[in-house]
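Open question from group meeting: does this chain pack into something compact, or does most of it stay loose? Before anyone orders reagents, we agreed to write out a predicted structure and look at it together. Recording both the input and the output here so the notebook holds the full record.
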Amino acid sequence: MSASNERYSRQKDIVPAERIAACKATVIGVGAIGRQVALQLTAMGIPWLQLVDFDLVETSNLASQGYLEEDLGKLKVEATASLCRRINSGIEIVPVAERFRRSMEIGSAIFCCVDSIDVRRLIWEATGSSASFFTDGRMSAETLRVLTACDAESRRHYPTTLFRTEEAFVGPCTAKTTIYCANIAAGMMVAQFTKYLRQLPVEADVQLNLLASELSVG
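Structure tokens returned:
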């Protein structure tokens, strides 16, 4: 078995090699959820990955988002890209240190990991009809929601979740982010992506409350 085949041997019946090799993925927002999505996509063999975020790594990002102390002061896209290259040196990675714009060239699979409902709406309006796969990860403390749109029914559902900004729940800044909840949200987003690659049905709306151990699938 070649080194390349050996690398992905434990996932070959779950992640179709030919289909993932044809994918270009864009992760918008590389904070708590987006950083983990990028690392997981890299490890499982995405060949082309675009990271979009304008922010710098701050001290508050170490515990909540998993950045390294040596990343402090760096652009999040550059710090994440550096680690992705260490995981898989063959990946083509495109860091974009800017806010998302409608005119950006993006991949065919979109992972929306931003923390503003208005930005989500902008991303959906700009990419929803063109992306073959779209997933949005949302989190507050120990609750998460993963929305996926890749067929007619799920594309109809997603816009109904884009409520007005003033309707958003605002919790204390010290109870917004936990890295374990972010990891679970990222894993669920990537799991939906692998279902899409296998041409299996995906769940349009999954909500999980870790504290109450409540799972809702819609």
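Observations to bring back to the group:
The longest strand covers residues 133-140.
Helices lie at 3-7, 17-21, 32-44, 60-65, 76-87, 117-127, 152-157, 179-197.
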